[in-house]
Every structure is written in C-alpha cells, then in structure tokens.
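Attaching the record inline, Q. Sequence:
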Amino acid sequence: MKALKEDGVTKIFKEKISGTSKKKELNNLLEVIKSGDTLVVTKQIELHIFYRNPKK
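Structure, as predicted:
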C-alpha cells in the first residue's frame, strides 16, 4: 500500500473476494472509474465470474 501511495495512487480499493461475496469494493470501483483512469491490479482476481453473472 505504501508503494502505491508513493507512486501517486489516489484511491485504493481492497477486497477479499469469494464465490459468495457481494463484491462491494469492486462495485464501488466500477462506479467511479472513468475513461482515462489507470487501474492497477496487484493480485490476480477472477473478474470473469462477476461479469458472467453480475447478480451473484
């Protein structure tokens, strides 16, 4: 986290996602991210599950 802030990251969304998680932080991210923003992912996550079944 410290290294991200030192590199100029202004917003950090951190979440442990499980198969039954409501993905609150991911939804918060999707509400604020806009064209021209840079998204940095520090750990591989399985977003394809969310996009195939957004109601999960």
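Helices lie at 2-6, 24-32, 47-52. Residues 2-52 form one domain.

More tomorrow.
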